[in-house]
Amino acid sequence: xxxxxxxxxxxxxxxxxxxxxxxxxxxxxxxxxxxxxxxxxxxxxxxxxxxxxxxxxxxxxxxxxxxxxxxxxxxxxxxxxxxxxxxxxxxxxxxxxxxxxxxxxxxxxxxxxxxxxxxxxxxxxxxxxxxxxxxxxxxxxxxxxxxxxxxxxxxxxxxxxxxxxxxxxxxxxxxxxxxxxxxxxxxxxxxxxxxxxxxxxxxxxxxxxxxxxxxxxxxxxxxxxxxxxxxxxxxxxxxxxxxxxxxxxxxxxxxxxxxxxxxxxxxxxxxxxxxxxxxxxxxxxxxxxxxxxxxxxxxxxxx
Length: 303
Prior knowledge:
- The protein folds into two domains: 3-123 and 281-302, Rossmann fold; 126-276, Glycogen Phosphorylase B (Rossmann fold), CATH 3.40.50.2000.
- It has 13 helices and twelve strands.
- It has helices spanning 15-27, 37-43, 81-90, 103-109, 152-157, 173-178, 195-200, 221-228, 239-247, 264-268, 277-280, 282-289, 291-302, and strands at residues 3-7, 31-35, 49-53, 68-72, 97-100, 117-119, 138-143, 165-168, 184-188, 202-207, 232-235, 253-254.
- Strands 2-1-3-4-5-6 form a six-stranded parallel sheet.
- It is elongated.
- The two termini are 13 Å apart.
- The model has no long low-confidence stretch (mean pLDDT 89).
């Protein structure tokens, strides 16, 4: 059976890689293995194709001897982000396919060659499409990174301590000290299979994304997961979330311009919404992208 290697990036939660493996396994036409880059380099002769989430992995390209697919789920962030994008662009070997989160990411990378490409947005695992507990343990859930989200900690701490808050994700020692409060539970990193049960045990999902490029144009996986699990969404305002909520005709609870929450809005909030699984599940996202068909055709016809 033909085999493809899926590279799991370091220091990043990449649900798209996990979802792609699940989809390939379900189809059963070829085999997919998830490996670190270092693991893959040692055994690459066992594979016909490698799928890579692009970061500074570009510097390893000279060690990869088999055809590659490059996936760009985001453009670079932080200091010298434009320089980082150019390094990714010019130090990478030409792949057989590029996938982009959306046209915005594609435009930022600005490739000028004729390499085939497609778009593959973020999706939601089927396990998140559920109803929340009638009497959840936590009022508010935040799931995701803390570091790099200036204003997030202050926003969480501004919530009255009468509301219980659960925080899922990696935190530093200094962040844990700042978030030490009787009403806040720090759960740390949680395995993917256990996340839906935690979502089920909250009323509101908290989203806070800095309104700066490129964060403010990227799909928020946590928002999709909150909605799939029947949580009411609390969010600050920025470009992607404004457009997304308008598109699905949803009214969230907005934080004010200082990132603070009007707790009266929690008491009076009655919005009910079900995220359509046929549009936002990973199965649907991958199926509509055409990625699986490209992989299959390349492995059995083009290689």
